[in-house]
Design a protein that fits this description.
The protein has 6 helices and 5 strands, in the order H-E-H-H-E-H-H-E-E-E-H. The chain is mainly alpha-helical. The strands form 2 sheets. It has a 3-stranded parallel β-sheet. It has a two-stranded antiparallel sheet with strand order 3-4. A hairpin with a 2-residue loop joins strand 3 and strand 4.
Length: 106
């Protein structure tokens, strides 16, 4: 696995239980920042054990529905099980965390 992807999985793993982060905020928190678009592309290869469901669009949407309604439903159920409210396919924006909160101290 490439170092940038390992860094991505580390950052996604820092999103706290009961919170979510946008693809763009995850990208900003990487050692070598990347766009939300690139983060979204890379997230398609997320290994097991990494809380992929905590990454959403910048407006709180669950964009997986375009690719897989089943995966979007799984994401919604996982987020709700963590106490995140979802209405109309959008995460409650108060549940979002931002890049400075995701940057680890190495």
């Amino acid at each position: 696995m490439s170092p940038p992807l390992e860094n991505l999985w580390e950052v996604v793993s820092r999103i706290p239980y009961g919170k979510a982060a946008s693809y763009g905020e995850v990208g900003k928190a990487l050692t070598y920042p990347a766009s939300g678009y690139m983060v979204g592309r890379w997230m398609a290869n997320c290994p097991s054990g990494v809380p992929w469901w905590r990454v959403v669009a910048k407006d709180g949407r669950l964009p997986l529905a375009k690719r897989s309604p089943e995966a979007a439903r799984e994401q919604e159920l996982r987020l709700e099980s963590e106490g995140i409210n979802i209405e109309g396919g959008h995460v409650d924006m108060s549940a979002l965390v931002f890049a400075p909160d995701l940057i680890g101290v190495d």
